[in-house]
Amino acid sequence: MSIPSNIAEGAGRGGSGRSFAQYLRIAAGSAAEAETQLQLARDIGIGDKALIDDATDRIRAISKMLWSLERHHRIRT
């Protein structure tokens, strides 16, 4: 929930300038936190390994999208 919430907050504050880029970086940090939590769950044997692996792949894809969006935004401003 933190990832889209930070994107929405940045967009709600105007969606441009350094503020939006900062919220995209915060969202990327939230993605990193989620990936870490998934890996910890996998390491200690909580949850289904296949589901955790799928969720981890999705989080990594989201992370790449966030960094691309932040880079694109930074270049345009």
Task: Characterise the protein shown here.
It is a single chain. This protein is mainly α and 77 residues long. The chain has one domain: de novo design (two linked rop proteins). It contains three helices and no strands. α1 packs antiparallel against α2 and α2 packs antiparallel against α3. The longest helix has 28 residues. The protein is elongated. It starts with a helix and ends with a helix.
How do the helices and strands line up, and which of them pair or pack?
Blueprint: H1 2-12, H2 17-43, H3 49-76
Instruction: Give the uncertain stretches in residue-range form.
Output: none
Report the helical percentage: over 70%
For the sheet with most strands, the description reads: none
Query: How many structural units, i.e. domains?
Result: 1
Summarize the structure.
Helices cover 86% and strands 0% of the residues. The protein has 77 residues and is an all-alpha fold. The longest helix has 28 residues.
